[in-house]
Amino acid sequence: MTMIEVRETGRHELADSRRERTDSLVAPARVNAAAVSSSPMAATPHRASRLRRPKRSRLRGSDVTAVCGFVVAVTLGLWWQHGGIGALLEGGPGRLQAIGQLTGLLAALASLGAIILTARPAFLERRYGLDQLLVAHRWFGISTVVLVVAHSVAGTLAWAALSGTSVTGGLVDLLANESWMVAALVSTTLFVIIGLSSSRRIKNALAYETWYFLHLTGYLAVLLGFGHQLTLGSDFLVDRIARWWWIGLALATVAIIMWSRIGGLVTSLRRRLYVTAVSREGDGIGSLHVNGPSLRRMRIAGGQFFIVRPLSRGLWWQAHPFSVSAAPTTAGIRFTIKEQGDDTPNLLRVKPGTRVLLEGPYGVFTAEKATGSRLVLIAAGVGIAPIRAILEDCHPQQQPILIVRVRHEGEFAHRAEIQDLIRARGGQLHMIVGPREWFAARDPLAVRSLEAMIPGIADRHAFICGPASLESAVIKGLRKSGMPSSNIHLERFGV
Ligand SMILES: Cc1cc2nc3c(=O)[nH]c(=O)nc-3n(C[C@H](O)[C@H](O)[C@H](O)COP(=O)(O)OP(=O)(O)OC[C@H]3O[C@@H](n4cnc5c(N)ncnc54)[C@H](O)[C@@H]3O)c2cc1C
After folding, report:
1. For residue 115, what are the CA distances in angstroms to 3, 144, 253, 285?
2. Are both 212 and 279 inside the same structural domain?
3. CA 323 to ligand 1: nearest atom
4. Which domain holds residue 391?
5. I need a surface site. Which of 96, 133, 391, 494 has the fewest CB within 10 A?
6. From start to end residue, where is composition biased (Basic residues) (predicted)?
């Protein structure tokens, strides 16, 4: 039998043919007491109180649609007014030119949207969460690349036709005689490289940092593309209002990015927060405990995440996102970290007392998404971190059912705490333990298994955190069991 199932409803019940004792499944993780007490920032003995939760976003989806619709409508209106539609209907080189202008304008808008989204502006992040922003960023990015390529092809063909030269001659003429065209060519090349490097296959072959720094050149690509829009774009050459509209859009984008990126960094620099302890939680998993004088003033909900940057040698120049894995209190916050690659093992070796910069909190993966509803929480591996924090925020009336998928028991971090939380809330805990191959014949997360584990599945809200393959399998199962997609909440650890 490969599946161990523990149901915790006040008493232990083992559904495993090997009849293991439940006690053998319990291996409490302990905070390294020596590390805590040796830390200069160890929590002073006071009654820990819960930190305030972040303010709710008042932004509505319709507000965002209205602003985007307005920007696109004004831009297309100006193009129309400058004879764009007429030229498009006429045919000949004029049509090519109109297509070039239209795709250029839309490419520029899409690129501004993409860089705004990736800057994680708080007003959007608090409403949609980073996941959704990154999904939207991806679509804006893909649209930018497609439109930029279409714009380059149509623009060059139109230029060649209108000046009566070959395509190559037209391209050479553009690059040699028109200002900002070399910059535009570099911009197009960068967009194409960024687009290609974001395909799953190439991205997986690159180190995260290589991919990230390559992606950062997107800002340069947008900047380099801007010059030729003003010097060559007929809409902006002749019409002062159009010119200022375009400059205004660019300045608004810069302001949002500076405010989000630099503002976030400045806030994290002003916070006085320190690592108070590092504890081991399981095989290749540990926790970073953080506290400091600034913590009391922060607003954090369990399940949110921070961009964490310890100011220690070799680590200060890199920042990684980690979720809060317990209810954030004045006694400190905790991040549960799996050793994945280059930096995470070093993060778990940081000395207590090290200053740490926390940017955030970010994310909308919090219990507030399902206040008053019955819950099912599904975690795989270190996905348990935000799920553990959400469980702590559950009310017994929400009858939480927690399904934990781990390859081996040592991978189940915070098990003792979780069992206590489940017991206190009258919930149930199901563990699915074993390597993936064991479950080839019988998928433990298929519809029938899910329905057997989760009574009243269709009316519950689900919180899921784990690898993409598990998430999609579970979502499929939950949807087939009648759970509406609006009740399914995800946190993705990959970007
Ligand atoms: C919203 C969110 C919350 C997360 N919460 C947790 C958590 O609570 N516990 C935990 O163990 N892990 C969490 N992660 C994943 C964690 O950030 C990465 O595992 C970690 O950054 C890997 O760093 P590395 O240098 O050891 O590995 P690398 O070898 O550099 O990377 C391994 C993989 O981790 C991802 N990754 C690396 N750096 C980053 C980064 N700066 N931003 C996003 N992804 C990155 C990439 O997909 C990469 O392929 C979270 C990720 C996200 C996006």
Report:
1. 46, 11, 8, 34
2. no
3. 8
4. 6-27+366-491
5. 494
6. 47-57
